[in-house]
User: What shape does this take?
Amino acid sequence: MVSCIYIFRKGLRLHDSPSLLAALKGATAFYPVFFLDPWFCNPSRLSSNRFNFLLESLCDLDNGLRSLGSRLFVVRGKVEEELPKLLTTWRVSRVFWESDTEAYARERDARVSSLLNSLGVAWDSVLGHTLYSPQLLVETVGGAEKVPRTYEGFLKLLGRLPPPPKPYPTPTALPPATLCGISPMEYGVPTLEECGFEPARVTTVFKGKGGEAASLAHLKTCMAKIPWVQSFEKPSTPPTALTPSTTALSPALKFGCLGVRTFYHALECVPGKKTSPPVSLTGQLLWREFYYLQSYATPNYDRMVGNPICRQIPWDYSPSLLKAWEDGETGFPWIDACQRQLVADGWLHHLGRHAVACFLTRGDLWQSWEHGAALFDKHLLDSDWALNNGNWQWLSCSAFFYQYFRVYSPVAFPKKTDPRGEYVRKWLPHLAKLPDAYIYEPWKAPPGVLKAAGVSLGVNYPLRIVDHEESSKKNMSRMAAAYEAHKVGEDAERAQANAAHPLAKGVGGSQSGSSAKSTEEWSVISSVPLGTLPPHTLGDADKSICGSSKSISQGDRPGKVVGRADGGNSERDVSKRSAIKDDDDTILVSPAKESVPKGKKSKLQGTVDAFLQKP
Assistant: This one.
């Protein structure tokens, strides 16, 4: 008799599960188990919305298992403590689980595998949560330090590999579990109340949508909209839509209710010409793969200190500013409305995530991205460790993206898709009667207008906690100083390495390795306006502000190339640049001066004009 425990984790589904199929081979008794870790089952760390989605997914999984003659055993406690008891009670001879590439999970699984080895119990884990194996990608490039840090470089790496495998089949039957006196009610899926969560706080529009059945049905609905899939461009979806303007399948991917290979090949089966990465739906899945690789190859990925790819920026720490941002009480209606939706729905359009992330960090409040990542992780249904931390580093210009002189305007940006402020009126109903002209800037409204709208600044709606114009410009200077400090550190390390090189002696001339352009020669940032910048992963999780491959070319960046396909990232001095604005009211920077003949456009101005004329 071969008795097997299969541990469900993120892959809460029966379809497209290679690890589940591996566990079933040769098993005569089968125990599907989910360990409800007390660290995770904690209202201070997790919102009721997010935990409810998990419980819905577990209930659906249990129903699916029962339809195949089995059931789900939900065990409350740490796997290292509870698993040995189950091994003895159920006389288990082997254990399987789906591989997890998160740092915490890898440490946990190392402990579990060591425990099983000591007990003489066979075990195995099989990758199934991603299209590609991060370890294989690391080996393909020759080590973690050579992992491409740009999306373009990542796509080139994928081009060296076979396409993702087709979805794995769904089991049609399962071996029985020998209950050994277990009550049918024992190990059932707990309720919210039993886990310490408040049902009244489940306010998300995703309520009732957790689980494999709902996810597959929603995928089918999305794929039936063939023209929409063909023309999909993530950056063109409006962040101010009153209902999700994207697939909204990100929570299903995060919890593994939907197999990523199933999604990928469903897109491949859509006929006709389709948009391409990074903006296409397939491109969103590849963004997900990009961040999984980054997290796998980067130590201390979820923090600034000790993270080799993260800029060491001296962020402030202000509990009052953090609380105002978290509670949606900043005095900027667009930012506050986004934060209200985050808490109420557990979801936010990727450009809304961009805006609030920029506002918290380099844009306005100068608070660490780690605080923002923690709040997102608590509330977002689709919060994924790899994607969430990667996007916060991107949006704070700490890693991956370095155009810190592009700052989201909390006023001009939302006006592009919602000039009447309907989104703000929905999430901040106490501002609903404000005229369109003041819905994003109530501080500009005359007293009579405010009174007529029932708005009293500082009473039923807060005063602005910062002046956006002043704080954004100040913070650009602070970022410039932080980048300069980073450059000095890089130069010192390079000089030390050059001095120690065997060929250093007797070699004259500069060893800088690249030509140094003057600050008057660089072109104005990327070729892609902010409104068309590529998104996050399919899941609407916060994504990039960098655009097409053009946005990382030599001519589009001040000084050195950043985000090169080879993973190199460094900047030149930007401390002597003045500020201009583009049509998105994001901040651009230009050289402080440029000498040109009277009556002629400078090279810089020509570039600016071309940039602003782009659709």
Notes: The longest helix spans residues 468-500. The beta strands are 3-8, 29-36, 73-76, 94-98, 122-126, 577-581, 587-591. The longest strand covers residues 29-36.
